[in-house]
Amino acid sequence: MSMDETHGGGMVSAILSSIVLLLLLGRTVDAQRSLEFFDLLPEDPKLYDKMRPPKKDGQATVVYFHVTVMGLDSIDENSMTYAADIFFAQTWKDNRLRLPENMTSEYRLLEVDWLKNMWRPDSFFKNAKSVTFQTMTIPNHYLWLYKDKTILYMVKLTLKLSCAMNFLIYPHDTQECKLQMESLSHTTDEMIFQWDPDVPLVVDENIELPQLQLVKNYTADCTQVYSTGNFTCLEVVFVLKRRLGYYLFHTYIPTCLIVIMSWVSFWIKPEAAPARVTLGVTSLLTLSTQHAKSQASLPPVSYLKAVDAFMSVCTVFVFMALMEYCLVNIVLGDSDTPPKPAPPPPPPSSSGPDSAKLDKIFDIATKENAMLLSGRSQKSTTGPPPGPTPAQKARMRALNIDRVSRVFFPFLFAVLNVTYWIMFAEYI
Fold it and tell me: Measured by CB atoms within 10 angstroms of the end CB, which terminus of the chain is less buried, N or C?
């Protein structure tokens, strides 16, 4: 082989090697090039309408929801609100998009700002008072694109939600607080919300509330018909049962002790008016303060609550104990007042000692004549009177009233407590 042929073959090999190297470098650069939003749009971007749901075969677009509840707190009965920390996920399929050519993994992370130029569900929290989006240390949301053109949008939120509460059997009540998500502008003909078939709801098992206990949670459908159409809606229901321990030791037991304290007056003698009246009035005022304290954290509802009925009956018991002493005082009457002093003897007349003796003899004779006419002897009149005096009888009647009250009031109060706790035993 000649020198020219050898040189020519080397040139061809070098050219081919250069072409292969350029192709490899081109592919590497293309693989390392960042993904742009226009890479996801159809070849004709005008065919993509971000305001129109991605229907398939004329069927409504299905959006799947998943909610992870990380915390429940700040339950305020006065304003009927509560707070919740959640991860909120929405999943839908948009067949109008194109997949990246170099996508090899199961999903790819997209820029969240691209949602402004894509169709997304117009869901909102129906019963939310306020929504806080978490931004530390970065905005807490992300966007995934799967190989089957499914889009997942996940966001972390702190919600302040309204909760319609009923306090008819407070503090034995069980409340149902909801988290409702509804479509703002798309009717059910265009979009339908459904719960994720695999894991629709996850609630942290370590949630602890000071006065309430999370006994149950479940998902439901809250779709409603408005004047403008039928709008899809999903809800999470939290069943919260009130813990009775706080109210048992801070309301019921102190109230019962105040009522029992008012019965001490039944063992105080009827003549001690200041002690018995002070005890009754003090018990009544203390019970009124206790009742007002039990209502401090509740809204002023117009219906009677269970704790109101209990406190009102206890107030009646204390008031009746005070009225019992009023009856005792009436029965006792004025018999305990000291007798009137005897009138002073008349001053001696100026006629002398003989006149005084004659008056004395005349008085004695008058008394003896009266005794003879009445048929009674002097001996019978000078003996002790038969039976107790009216004052003693009145005092005995007053003491009998106290003795009956010592048994009647505790017995009736015990019947009240047994009836009350039997009625609400199923709510404990």
Answer: N
